Structure formats: structure tokens, C-alpha cells
Amino acid sequence: MITEVNEKEYEALDHSVPMLIEFYSKTCGPCKMLAFVLKDIAKQKPDFPIYIIDFDENRELKERLGVKGFPTMLFFKDGKEVSRLEGLKQKPAIIKAIEAIA
Amino acid sequence: MENSYDVIIVGAGPAGMTAAIYAIRANMKVLMLDRLSPGGAIINTNEIENYTGAGKLTGAELAIKMFEHTQELGVEFDYRTVIDLIDEGEWKIVVCEEDDAVYQAKAVILATGTVPRRLGVPGEDQWAGSGISWCAICDGAQYRDKEVVVIGGGNSAVEESIYLAGICTKLTIVTMFDLTADPKACDQLRKMPNVTIYPYQDVLEFTGEDRLTGVRFKSTKEDATERYVTCDGVFEYIGFQASSAAFARLGILDRTGCIEADARMRTKVPGIFGAGDITVKHLRQIVTACSDGAVAANSAASYVESLKQ
User: Fold this and answer.
1) Is the pLDDT of residue B1 over 70?
2) Residue spans per domain, chain A
3) Rounded to 10 degrees, what is the CA torsion of B265, B267, B273, B276?
4) Does A28 qualify as catalytic in the annotation?
5) At what angle do helices B59-72 and B14-25 cross, to 10 degrees?
6) Residue ranges of chain B that CATH labels 3.50.50.60
7) Looking at residue B57, what DSSP letter applies?
8) Which chain B residues touch A if contact means CB-CB below 8 Å?
9) Given A69, A86, A91, which is nearest B79 (Cβ)?
10) Of the residues A19, A21, A31, A67, which is catalytic?
11) What CATH superfamily classification does B124-236 receive?
12) pLDDT band at B293 (very low <50, low <70, confident <90, very high)
């Protein structure tokens, strides 16, 4: 399931659960196309939480997580970042990263 | 075989998506594959102003419209990286990297496009598509009355520089060798008052914080002088590479790796067609890619029908 969150909502998430956090920008073409890929992944893995965060509107959070550009995908397990993918990536690479934490 | 189709289209850029639309409307059973996402090269283009009837929109917006069009018509789509295409006469075997997936089709349209050759220096990935562009026709207008750097000295670099120098306040050319384009074009460029050329240079990095602000480069001559030029935008023209490695064994590529196709987009292998930027052509634009896709799908449909007779 894909849910958009802001910084405050991100803090309130249950971080013990494996999750994918994606930082995107409204003006970024590859981010828009990644949305297609993530939608497809969400269909395939409906129980896996995917959270998307607006890079431009959540600058403090992206600084704290060391996110420098967009799109950036962070894969979390037990509240810790296990891996990250930067840029538009192939669906199998994203699935592989999800399966490594789920 | 479960994974059997009339037509498989490899690549979901404008050429592939248009081919899909034409093929499915010709009552073909169609599968479209792409390794990354629908859209192809246009997703990196900020503004498109030359696609007839579309007005001004971003590459991603156009890509989404095109993809939705294919989905409304029921085109089957999947994310796959095609690593081999085997010609078995009536059937073409499409081999994918993921899960060893294999499909077969009576006709295959190859529309995997090209990728610009990149420098691979710091800052390039960060500003790609928002400061660094590979298409002056597409993105040049946004740099009117601004300062631009062009990387490269071949025909594309010089031709696009002449265009850009006409709209920008200052144009700097940084190239690994001297200008290698047609002498007449080089002379024309050299005479333009707002153009500075730095030959025999290695680009070191692109710099900026919120936006691209400059390029650092170094002479390849003995003095190895390092320079920094401020700019609002960069255009890279150091060549392109056709995304055609998977099809090399078919003998349908020219020496640059592009697919050789005739006016009906047929390659020399019956049942295999090329469309869009991957083919040998003069003008690589969305509108010409779409045209190729339509022609290729029409030819593919005729070919599939001919097999029934």
C-alpha cells in the first residue's frame, strides 16, 4: 500500500515494521515514472508499506536521512536503514530490496 | 506456449507505445516490455513544445498520457529487461533477465532507443534533466538570455551550439579535442561574438547547490590549467549509444549499433522491425519516433497476417 506522509506523520509511523520510504519531487520526471513502478509493486505486495514523502516540503527530514536528490528510496527494517536506491530503478531491483527486509 | 503473442514490442518510449496502439487496433495480441518504466528518454525532458497539438508539457506528462492511452486500449505491459532475441523463423523468442522469463511472438518491434553517452563526472547525475540536458531543441528555449556551456565538439555539439548561441547571452564550449564538425559550421560558430571555445579539456565536475551553477574543467595540454565557468545550463553532446546489445547477434545493426530498417521499418530479418531512436535516422524527435512506431506496427500486422496465408 502506498501512503503519502509528511515529516510529522513519518515520525508517528510504527518503525519496527519493514518499510520503503520514497522521496520524490512534483517537478521530477523520473519520480513520476517511478510512481508507476511503485504502484505495480504495491499491487504485487499489497501488505508491504510504501510511504512517499515530498522532498521539497520536508527538507528537515530529508536532511536528517541524508537524502540528497530525488527519487530516493530508503529501505528500513527495525527502524534502521538497510539499503537505499537513488534514481529511477528497475522493478526487480526494488522487489529484491523489499524482499531482503520483509 | 502460454507466453505467445502476435507482436511483442520491446521498449515503451513514444515509438514503442505508438506501435502498441497501432498493433492492438489492428487486432493483434500485443505485449509491450520495458526495462525501467514507460516513457523512455522523454521522462528526462523538462519541457516539450514541439509535439503537435500537445502545447507545452513535461516529458513525464506526455509519457503518462501515452501510457494511459495504451492501457485504455488494453495493451499488456510488463517490466522486463530483454537480454536476447532469437529468430526461429515463424516464431521469435524473447528472453528476459528477470526470472528467466521467455516469450514468443510472430513479430517483434524493437524500440529500445538510445542513451546519451555520459561523462561520468561528479554532479552529472544530480543535475541530469534539471540543468544538464542532451537536447537543445527540446530544452534550449528555457536558457534564453542566460549562460550556457556545451560539452563536445562534433556535429551535434556545433549545430546545437549555433542554435543556442543565438538565444543565450554567453555560450562556452568545452571539448576534449578541437571542433571536429563540418568546417563551415565550425567557422560560423567561431564567428559568433558570444561564443568562447576551450578545446582539449577534460571536464572535472558540475557544481551547484539548489541549482547547477558552473562547470570545472582542466586542460589536457602540458600546462594542465584548471578553469571554472559559471552557467545556468549545460548541454552534453559527446555522442549516444543505441540500446541494442541484446540484438547484436541478429546482424541487423550498423557499425554504430543502430538498427538498419527500411521505409516500412523492416529489418533484414523477416518479422523483426525497428522503430524510433534505435534506428538509423537523421532526426531523433518524439514525433518521428511515433511515426516509426505506427509504420512498424502496420508492417508487423501485415507480416503476421501474411503468415496465416
Assistant:
1) no
2) 2-99
3) -60
4) yes
5) 20
6) 4-116+240-308, 124-236
7) B
8) 35-39, 42-46, 58-61, 63-64, 67, 79, 81, 97-98, 125-126, 129-130
9) A91
10) A31
11) FAD/NAD(P)-binding domain (3.50.50.60)
12) very high
Residues on chain A touching B135 (C-beta within 8 angstroms): none
ipTM over 0.85: no
pLDDT of residue B190: 96
Cβ contact A90–B59 (<8 Å): no
The model's confidence at residue B217, banded by pLDDT at 50, 70 and 90, is very high
The partner residue sitting opposite A30, judged by closest CB among B43, B61, B98, is B43
- Tell me: the pLDDT tens digits for B297-306? 999 999 999 9
Question: Of B37, B64, B81, which is closest to A37 when you measure between CB atoms?
Answer: B37
- Identify the bridge partners of residue A24 per DSSP, sorted by sequence position: A54
Grid cell for residue B225: 590549467
Do B129 and A88 count as a contact with CB atoms less than 8 A apart? Answer: no
**What top-level class would CATH report for the domain B4-116+240-308?**
alpha beta
Q: What is the C-alpha separation between B133 and B61, in angstroms, rounded?
A: 18
| Nearest CA-CA distance, residue A14 and chain B, Å | 31
CA distance B10 to B76: 12
Q: What is the pLDDT of residue B138?
A: 57
Cα B275 to Cα B10: distance, rounded to the nearest angstrom = 10
Neighbours of A37 (CB within 10 A): 21
Q: Helix (H, G, I), strand (E, B), or coil: what is residue A6?
A: coil
Fold type of domain A2-99: Glutaredoxin (3.40.30)
- The reply to whether omega before A71 is within 30° of 0 (cis) is yes
Residue the block writes with cell 530508503: A74
Q: What is the dihedral of CA B107, B111, B112, B114, to 10 degrees?
A: 150
Q: Is A36's CB within 8 Å of B67's CB? A: yes
